[in-house]
Design a protein that fits this description.
Elements: E1 2-7, E2 13-22, E3 41-46, E4 54-60, E5 68-70, E6 78-81, E7 87-88, E8 90-92, E9 100-101, E10 114-115, E11 130-135, E12 140-145, E13 148-153, E14 161-165, H1 167-170
Antiparallel strand pairs: 1-2, 2-3, 3-4, 5-6, 6-8, 7-10, 8-9, 11-12, 12-13, 13-14
């Protein structure tokens, strides 16, 4: 599960909720009509009153909900799933009573999830497995899984754009590195994003010494 909330411009919290990914199965004795034994579902639980949490809505999802992460935790309008088999899902949470999976290709009748090399199949995980998303304030999302790490531009969270990934080394397939890290950056964070600028030369030193 993961936490999300909404805030007004002055910082007032308006919605507080928990996202529960049904990865394998879910059985609720107080709500037997929604027993799930197949996985692939996201439950939104209202926790504004922490003494009375209750399921607010559900949405079926076409990829693994092993983890589900808000693109912006304090303004959670979109969330991404861990994903599997080379794909992940974007969940539209703008209407918490009616969450929806965003279709990568709306011209087809079925839901098409988004592609990510982080969940590519490899020799260890034959079906490919995503693990988690982390997002920095520079609108970059880092997706980790059995295919290594993939970075996406999430400035438009409903339409993430692949930037780069760890490639064969992250999949443990690079020559001479076959036994190295699949789940590279398995649980990691990218703090202070502004300090990391690509292709910036080291600052020259000035002054005298000794």
């Amino acid at each position: 599960m993961n936490y999300g909330e909404r805030r007004t411009r002055d910082g007032k919290v308006t919605d507080q909720f928990v996202m529960i990914g049904v990865d394998l199965q879910a059985v609720d004795p107080t709500d037997p009509a929604h027993t799930n034994i197949g996985g692939g579902q996201l439950i939104i639980v209202d926790v504004e009153d922490p003494t009375n949490p209750h399921a607010r809505s559900r949405v079926d999802v076409s990829t693994s909900t092993h983890t589900v992460s808000c693109v912006r935790e304090i303004q959670c309008r979109y969330a991404y799933t861990a994903g599997n088999r080379g794909t992940f899902s974007v969940i539209d949470l703008r209407d918490l009573d009616n969450p929806k999976e965003v279709d990568f290709n709306p011209s087809t009748p079925e839901i098409d999830p988004f592609l990510s090399p982080a969940t590519d199949p490899n020799k260890v995980f034959s079906k490919g497995a995503g693990h988690k998303w982390n997002f920095d304030r520079g609108a970059i999302g880092f997706h980790t899984g059995s295919g290594g790490t993939a970075a996406f531009d999430v400035s438009d969270p409903a339409n993430p754009k692949f930037l780069t990934g760890t490639g064969a080394a992250g999949r443990g397939e690079a020559a001479g590195l076959e036994d190295y890290n699949d789940f590279i950056h398995h649980n990691s964070w990218h703090p202070n994003h502004a300090a990391f600028r690509p292709f910036t030369p080291r600052a020259s030193r000035t002054g005298t010494c000794c």
